[in-house]
């Protein structure tokens, strides 16, 4: 059920809500913002509030990174305007007396949307589709690992000797996941109560690995849900003395954690599936074939937005259900792009490249932009790959490193046209900084390997 501003005002007046979280989504896909006294929010802050513009120019550790055109010490790190999108308003059952609203990020002086804000990037691609009479529906699966230690205990131990919530591979395992229901049941019910319709949770392919799935939605709504789900998972685990990680590859011996993104195009009113053609091969319309061809043609260019960190590329290992080849196939989990729902109105393409560390707005925007390029260019779709894609020879590969993905992003004419040069250069700087920071660090592996033997 939709939670409206009128509902909020009533809940505030009757004492059920006393706090409103006004949040923007940062470059890393995290919720950043303020906790408002609810009375003040419904009185005036629902119109706008403000935040420092460094929030869209920092790294994971909130470092003020040099080299951004949008903001700097020289420019004084001024304000952005945060404009609450009241369509995203919801109560959060897992936080007492609390509601949440997501905000668009506007220029403090012009009140135009900040082009490199993740929500604005996705909204721009959604509008491009609307101009074509199309609407994107998406669903993102989210995987993560659950640990028995709290976040504080994990940090104080140096993230060593962590106890996973289960002791063995729990993929689809009911008894093993029963042991984790304290967290997972609270997560499912909490999200459902927050207006995010949950489908299921399940054990994943390693000890302690979980997956949560919610109902598909239009691209912007799905990205909003995704960012809230990640924050909710951390908060609910923390409340129970547990911790979770959305690292793409937290441990060498464990499976990686993904965020597969299912995508299809429909008419703007959401009634006609534009990817489906009953009598066509596999039920794929010409529009779908061109869209998928666009995903493949620009696969390397968009990889950064699916795998934004050094660690992201540790996940791409053969035989682990994480893809290494950017090819498409029919219901084949070894390929980077999998056809699902063959021959039905639910036909869709699943991108299996993205890890659980991606920013959903950026990932979905990049996928849509590549798909539009395929449609506009009327690209022909290659034949589906058959067999084990891990062992495929002379076929398109996913970039193996962040350095390679950043190089492809830099040279992408398609993304520069779709996003704008300033936006691409902004995220290119983020990729460069991530690489620079990693290149100067000493890892435990290096020390253990060479301390005595070097």
Short description:
This protein is 34% helix and 19% strand. The protein is built from 14 helices and 16 strands.
Secondary structure topology:
Elements: H1 5-13, E1 19-25, E2 31-37, H2 38-45, E3 49-52, E4 79-84, E5 90-91, E6 98-107, H3 118-131, E7 134-140, E8 142-147, H4 151-156, H5 174-178, H6 181-193, E9 198-203, E10 209-214, E11 217-218, H7 219-239, E12 243-245, E13 261-267, H8 286-297, H9 299-306, E14 328-330, E15 337-340, E16 348-351, H10 360-376, H11 402-410, H12 413-419, H13 421-439, H14 444-450
Q: For the residues shown, what is the average pLDDT?
A: 96
- Helices and strands, in N-to-C order? HEEHEEEEHEEHHHEEEHEEHHEEEHHHHH
Distance between the termini: 63 Å
Rg computed from alpha carbons, rounded to a whole number of angstroms: 22 Å
For the biggest sheet, the summary is:
6 strands, mixed
Strand content: 15-25%
Structural category: alpha+beta
**Residues in helix, %:** 25-40%
The overall strand count is 16
Q: What is the number of helices? A: 14
Molecular shape:
globular
Low-confidence residue ranges? none
Structure description:
- It is a single chain.
- The strands form three sheets. Strands 1, 2, 3, 4, 5 and 6 form a six-stranded mixed beta sheet that branches. A six-stranded mixed beta sheet has the order 11-7-13-16-15-14, covered by helices on one side.
- A hairpin with a 5-residue loop joins β9 and β10.
- The protein has 454 residues and is an alpha+beta fold.
């Amino acid at each position: 059920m939709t939670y409206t501003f009128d509902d909020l005002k009533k809940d505030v007046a009757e004492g059920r809500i006393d706090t409103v979280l006004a949040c923007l989504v940062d470059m890393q896909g995290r919720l950043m913002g303020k906790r408002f006294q609810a009375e003040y929010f419904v009185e005036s802050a629902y119109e706008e509030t403000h935040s420092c513009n460094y929030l869209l120019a920092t790294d994971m550790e909130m470092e003020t990174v040099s080299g951004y055109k949008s903001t700097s010490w020289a420019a004084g790190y001024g304000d952005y305007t945060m404009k609450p999108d009241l369509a995203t308003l919801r109560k959060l059952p897992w936080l007492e007396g609390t509601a949440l609203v997501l905000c668009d990020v506007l220029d403090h002086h012009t009140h135009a949307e900040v082009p490199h804000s993740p929500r604005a990037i996705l909204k721009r691609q959604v509008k491009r589709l609307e101009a074509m009479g199309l609407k994107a529906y998406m669903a993102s699966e989210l995987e993560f690992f659950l640990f028995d230690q709290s976040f504080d205990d994990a940090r104080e131990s140096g993230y060593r000797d962590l106890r996973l919530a289960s002791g063995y591979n729990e993929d689809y395992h009911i008894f093993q996941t029963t042991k984790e229901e304290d967290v997972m049941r609270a997560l499912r019910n909490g999200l459902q109560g927050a207006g995010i319709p949950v489908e299921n949770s399940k054990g994943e392919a390693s000890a302690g690995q979980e997956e949560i799935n919610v109902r598909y939605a239009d691209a912007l709504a799905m990205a909003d849900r995704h960012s809230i789900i990640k924050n909710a998972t951390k908060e609910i685990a923390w409340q129970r003395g547990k911790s979770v990680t959305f690292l793409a590859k937290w441990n060498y011996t464990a499976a990686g954690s993904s965020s597969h993104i299912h995508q299809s195009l429909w008419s703007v009113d959401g009634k006609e599936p534009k990817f489906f053609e009953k009598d066509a091969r596999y039920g794929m319309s010409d529009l779908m074939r061109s869209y998928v061809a666009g995903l493949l043609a620009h696969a390397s260019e968009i990889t950064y937005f699916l795998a934004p960190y050094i660690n992201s590329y540790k996940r791409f290992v053969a035989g682990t259900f994480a893809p290494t080849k950017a090819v498409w196939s029919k219901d084949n989990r070894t390929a980077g792009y999998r056809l699902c729902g063959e021959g039905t109105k639910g036909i869709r393409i699943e991108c299996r490249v993205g890890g659980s560390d991606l920013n959903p707005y950026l990932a979905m925007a990049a996928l849509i932009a590549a798909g539009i390029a395929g449609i506009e260019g009327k690209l022909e779709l290659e034949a589906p790959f058959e067999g084990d894609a891990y062992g495929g020879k002379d076929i398109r590969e996913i970039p193996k490193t962040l350095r390679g993905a950043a190089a492809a992003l830099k040279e992408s004419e398609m993304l520069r046209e779709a996003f704008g040069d300033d936006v691409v250069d902004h995220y290119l700087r983020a990729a460069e900084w991530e690489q620079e920071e990693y290149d100067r660090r000493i890892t435990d592996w290096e020390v253990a390997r060479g301390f005595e033997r070097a």
